[in-house]
Amino acid sequence: MDDTVSIAGLDSWIRAFAELVAEHKDSLSDLDAAIGDGDHGANMDRGMRAAVAALDESPPATAKALFSKLGMTVVSTVGGASGPLFGTMFLRIGSALGDSTEISPAQLAAGLRAGLDGIVARGKAEPGDKTMLDALAPAVAALESAAAEGADHAEALRRAVSAAEQGRDATIPMLARKGRASYLGERSVGHQDPGATTVALFLTAALRAPL
Ligand code: ADP
Ligand code: MG
Q1: pLDDT tens for residues 168-207?
Q2: How far does Cα 143 stand from its chain's mean position?
Q3: Domain spanning 5-208: which superfamily?
């Protein structure tokens, strides 16, 4: 397969993600109200609106410039735990994609792997801690195996969305071991993690864009 995604495709992914976050702003904050401080949807919506405004102002020409702008905007506007974590993920994706203007499924998988590694380095969470990683790690693994099998972007992303949604749902019975939700101990059990929910929206946005 020589299916590739252009910078315009990556740009529409980011914009579709901003739209999904805006659409789900209240439900993301409701999830966070149950096990945190109720600001996750508002945090992410503020950041993604600012990111779209920054992209409108000066459209980046490479994948690295695009994701760097997104990452820096998210770090400086989102705050909380998720600002530095999602911001780091976007910055690492940008560095991994580099100056490419046509991204293959294998490159996209490698980019998201780098983003995942960045979140782990920064937040020190492990699988099963009830965080965004519990949706992202299975999604990245699905992208990698799809790319290795020669799947095109649409097929790889369908599998990644499905893996992310399963990972998101699997956070419900988990006990939170990182972030604000961990202060609740046993009372965090039975609630879906907001950050994992946002990760599933990020993957869904790529399918919706379409790339
Ligand atoms: P805050 O907790 O500061 O209010 P948000 O509400 O925006 O920040 O984000 C909460 C989300 O951040 C959680 O649902 C979880 O997925 C994620 N999170 C928190 N701590 C970590 C961590 N150490 N590693 C990975 N993800 C984390
Ligand atoms: Mg919060």
Answers
A1: 999 999 999 999 999 999 999 999 999 999 999 999 999 9
A2: 14
A3: DhaL domain (1.25.40.340)
- For residues 113, 131, 175, 29, the Cα torsion angle rounded to the nearest 10 degrees is -160
Crossing angle (nearest 10°) for helices 82-97 and 105-123: 140
| DSSP 8-class letter at 185 | G
CA of 135 from ligand 1 middle (Å) equals 13
Ligand 1, closest atom to CA 125? 24
With beta carbons less than 8 A apart as the criterion, state whether 153 and 183 touch: no
At 8, the amino acid letter reads A
Enumerate the domain spans of the chain.
Answer: 5-208
Query: For the chain, first and last CA: distance in Å?
Result: 15
Residue 209 DSSP symbol: T
125 three-class SS:
coil
Q: What is the pLDDT of residues 64-88, one digit of tens each?
A: 999 999 999 999 999 889 999 999 9
Indicate whether this model's pTM tops 0.85.
yes
Contacts of 160 (CB under 8 A, 6+ apart): 139, 140, 142, 143, 146, 203, 206
What protein residues have CB closer than 5 angstroms to ion ligand 2?
32, 36-37, 39-40
> Cβ(189)–Cβ(174) under 8 Å?
yes
